Amino acid sequence: MEFYHKTPHEDLDVARLQHLLGLDKLPALCASIDSVALNNDRAGSLYCLWGAFDVERVDVRCGTRFSLLDCPHALAWTITYDRQNQDLIVHCSVDKTELDPEFAESIQSFVDDWADGLEKALA
After folding, report:
1. What is the pLDDT confidence band of residue 100, given thresholds at 50, 70 and 90?
2. Residues 58-61: contacts with CB within 8 Å, 24+ apart?
3. Which of 2, 48, 59, 105 has most Cβ atoms within 10 angstroms of its Cβ?
4. Is the pTM of the predicted complex or chain greater than 0.90?
């Protein structure tokens, strides 16, 4: 199942976005993330609204992807910039096509928290 939030944003520098998305900065960018303990710049342990998980960060074309490695739902999210349409996109997916409504609502809240945090950080 997929969740996303698209925010118009003019002329965003992808290198700046990727720098902003360092693992150590996640709690300041997303209200649903309480803390991150770093192993290195690509991996660590994250505590969020669903509990504690190992997290991995990978830069991808036009943004950054995060994965909760030990999440039972294979939750991953990607933050990218669509230069053509000038949109900042938060995209989150899990490995199920149907979810408990409360869990689906919590994922949408997670995505919305990301959108809010990014909007403030990039203002």
Report:
1. confident
2. 59/18
3. 48
4. yes
11-24 burial, b if ≥16 CB within 10 A, otherwise e? Answer: ebeeeebbebbebe
Distance CA 46, CA 69 (A): 10
- The size of the chain, in residues, is 123
Which tens digit of pLDDT belongs to each residue from 24-57? 999 999 999 999 999 998 999 999 999 999 999 9
Task: Give pLDDT, residue 99.
Answer: 79
- 27 is in which domain, residue-wise? 2-121
The CATH number assigned to the domain holding 34 equals 3.30.530.20
Read off the pLDDT of each residue in 59-88 and give the average, rounded to a whole number: 96
Specify the number of domains making up the chain: 1
Of the candidates 41, 102, 104, the one whose C-alpha atom is nearest the C-alpha of residue 75 is: 104
Q: State which amino acid sits at residue 61.
A: R
